[in-house]
Amino acid sequence: MSAERTTVPTGIPDTDLFTIEAIPSKGKGLVASKAIPAGTLLISEPPLFTTASLTNAETIEKDLQAIVRSLPRDGQKAFLFLHNNFPGQPNPFSNIIRSNGYPLGPNSEVGGIFPLIARMNHSCRPNAQHHWNPKLGEQTVYAVRDVAAGEELTLSYHNGGPSTERKAALKQFFGFDCACELCSQPAEKLRKSDKRLRDAARLDESIGDAKRVRLQPADALKDCKELLRIYEAEGVRDTRLPRLYYDAFQICAMHSDAARASVFAESARRVRELSEGPDSEEAATMKGLEEAPEKFENWGSTKNWLSKVSDRETKYKDIECPVSVKTTVIWEA
Question: What pairs with residue 18 in β-bridges?
Answer without folding.
Answer: 32
